[in-house]
Amino acid sequence: MACLYAVSNHIEKHYHIAVIPKKNGGTRKLSVPDILLRTIQRNIVKYVLPERFVSQFATAYRLNASVLMNACPHVGTEQVLKLDIRDFFHSITFQMVYQSAFPAVYYPPAIRMLLTSLCCFMDCLPQGAPSSPAISNLVMKPFDEYMGSWCEERQIQYTRYCDDMTFSGNFDVKKLKLKVKNYLYKMGFELNEQKTKVQRQYQRQIVTGIVVNEKPQVCREYRRQLRAEIYYCGKYGVESHLQRMGISGGGSESPQDPERYAQHLLGKINYVLSVDPGDKYFLEKRDEILLLVKEFRGDSIISK
User: What gap in Å lies between CA 8 and CA 92, rounded to an integer?
Assistant: First the structure.
């Protein structure tokens, strides 16, 4: 217990700032905890935060959650509305965490304060801490339950994957958006207007990377790129393919190491198959890449 208080009293010493590039340009700042604090936060998630608090409409950061779970309710609907919460984690304050993640009905004041201090940094929920995703679901539970109930009464499908909210069905987009905006404002959040998207039936409807017009399917661009990577690995070999791409080298601990690249491909294939388990091409290629991974592992053991 003394260790926990020592860490919480000097929380700033246990973080460092990491800047990573975003896929669509720009950068994102992460507040990354050190090993000690990271271990504490993981234990808080595992032993302190019970799964029962999470809303059924939250489809990320929970047991058996996935992008597919988030996308499936929206398959074959008339229209899809996608809304995004601006600066999601940084908008979740110390007080929000204190009230929602560690409520008085379960914890005495001193323990509530200690746990909140261990999970917050600079008066907000740090993006980069392992406890932040689970806590964000607890903070968003009132919104999820209210909007989920409101939508069900009107035969509208609603899911939330982190800061991405998806609504589908037959509804007035402006009315629904205003409803969401007003409730979020009361909680201390705001919409990222630039990320609002409406997708009609005659357009390609994509929810968390999955096309949902007729059946759940991974975007064709993703599949095409993956097919190309697999093809060139088969034609030139993994190491030669990496050299052709200009990303080879670095030894066994490098992310450009052939074994790691093969594992990376295997992960992407498994993702496609999780959405479409009957895809014959990727089922066949999964077996081929799996053999490659085993061969690389055998070579590395022999070389040692």
Answer: 18
- Cβ(259)–Cβ(303) under 8 Å? no
- Which of 162, 180, 211 marks a domain boundary? 211
Phi, psi of 302 (to 5 degrees): -65, -40
pLDDT in tens, 12-49: 999 999 998 877 777 888 999 999 999 999 999 999 98
pLDDT number for residue 24: 74
Containing structural domain, residue 201: 2-211
pLDDT value for 141: 97
Cα 259 to Cα 232: distance, rounded to the nearest angstrom: 16
d(CA 116, CA 94): 7
Q: Tens digit of pLDDT for each residue in 103-159?
A: 999 899 999 999 999 999 999 999 999 999 999 999 999 999 999 999 999 999 999
**Last-in-domain residue among 211, 235, 252:** 211
> Which residue, chain included where needed, has tokens 């992407």?
268
Q: Are residues 125 and 172 in the same domain?
A: yes
- What pairing do the DSSP bridges indicate for beta strands 210-211 and 217-218? antiparallel
Angle at 31 between CA 28 and CA 121, to 5 degrees: 130
Take residue 90 and report the two structure tokens written for it. Answer: 């940084």
* Domain shared by 288 and 240, yes or no: yes
User: Residues 133, 234: one domain?
Assistant: no
